[in-house]
UniProtKB/TrEMBL annotation:
<dbReference type="GO" id="GO:0005737">
    <property type="term" value="C:cytoplasm"/>
</dbReference>
<dbReference type="InterPro" id="IPR011006">
    <property type="entry name" value="CheY-like_superfamily"/>
</dbReference>
<keyword id="KW-0597">Phosphoprotein</keyword>
<dbReference type="InterPro" id="IPR051271">
    <property type="entry name" value="2C-system_Tx_regulators"/>
</dbReference>
<feature type="domain" description="Response regulatory">
    <location>
        <begin position="5"/>
        <end position="121"/>
    </location>
</feature>
<dbReference type="GO" id="GO:0003677">
    <property type="term" value="F:DNA binding"/>
</dbReference>
<keyword id="KW-0805">Transcription regulation</keyword>
<dbReference type="InterPro" id="IPR036388">
    <property type="entry name" value="WH-like_DNA-bd_sf"/>
</dbReference>
<dbReference type="GO" id="GO:0003700">
    <property type="term" value="F:DNA-binding transcription factor activity"/>
</dbReference>
<keyword id="KW-0902">Two-component regulatory system</keyword>
<keyword id="KW-0804">Transcription</keyword>
<dbReference type="InterPro" id="IPR005471">
    <property type="entry name" value="Tscrpt_reg_IclR_N"/>
</dbReference>
<dbReference type="Pfam" id="PF09339">
    <property type="entry name" value="HTH_IclR"/>
</dbReference>
<keyword id="KW-0010">Activator</keyword>
<dbReference type="GO" id="GO:0000156">
    <property type="term" value="F:phosphorelay response regulator activity"/>
</dbReference>
<protein>
    <recommendedName>
        <fullName>Transcriptional regulatory protein</fullName>
    </recommendedName>
</protein>
<dbReference type="InterPro" id="IPR024187">
    <property type="entry name" value="Sig_transdc_resp-reg_cit/mal"/>
</dbReference>
Length: 226
């Protein structure tokens, strides 16, 4: 799968540097443009035709919502994730109505943007398939359906959380080959023992499949796939 082509729009040079560094640490993404104001962003977006834009709300010459509206009115096939300090509920509601796929508050941790970008890659992959199942849509929209007939209860086991669960599911959905716990740990930034706990839980509930691979020597290796 080709890397997601991404443009970052941010007026603060220091924040731009941090955002760029974070994105560079996430596999599957390529930064193809940067802009420090709205008019420059509009030019870069039209020239480069990115897949995704990381967009600040507060820009020197316009707000991010206005730029998002311009993108939608021009029918450009570009997705947008807001990365901003703006917490105004009215603005956020409008932004979501105009199709932003995520909204990240500043300041944020690396784990938050990595989860967002992992989720975005999963969404792109599913939209390229011929058919999407309900469970795929639930991952895309972040909906967790409690079904006691399938999960054995309404709560995750102690020590597990839903965000990490979805992160692992998204990671596995991107892979073409079964992954070991060590592979998943390396790909998600989790500790190996943590990755193994989540994988065992997901396999037990039937959300992923287990393949046991036997080598010529040594112990068999458990590998998992979505």
């Amino acid at each position: 799968m080709e890397p997601v082509r991404l443009v970052i729009v941010e007026d603060d040079p220091m924040v731009m540097e941090v955002n760029s560094e974070f994105v560079s640490r996430i596999s599957g993404y390529k930064i193809i443009g940067k802009a420090f104001n709205g008019s420059e962003a509009w030019k870069v977006i039209n020239q480069t035709k990115p897949d995704l834009v990381l967009l600040d709300y507060f820009l020197p010459d316009m707000d991010g919502l206005s730029l998002l509206k311009d993108i939608r009115n021009s029918d450009l096939p570009v997705d947008v994730i807001f990365v901003t300090a703006n917490r105004d509920p009215g603005h956020i509601q409008q932004i979501l109505r105009f199709g932003a796929v995520d909204y990240i508050f500043k300041p944020f941790r690396f784990e938050r943007i990595r989860t967002a970008l992992d989720q975005y890659r999963f969404m792109r992959k599913k939209f390229r398939e011929q058919q999407i199942e309900q469970r795929d849509m639930d991952v895309i929209t972040g909906i967790r359906v409690h079904d006691s007939t399938q999960t054995g209860g309404n709560d995750l086991p102690k020590g597990l959380n839903d965000r990490t669960l979805q992160q692992i599911l998204s990671f596995l959905a991107e892979q073409t080959e079964p992954m070991s716990a060590e592979d998943v740990a390396a790909g998600t930034g989790l500790a190996r023992v943590t990755a193994r706990r989540y994988l065992e839980y997901l396999q037990k509930k039937g959300h992923i499949q287990l393949e046991v691979q036997y080598g010529s020597i040594g112990r068999p290796v458990n590998r998992y796939k979505k």
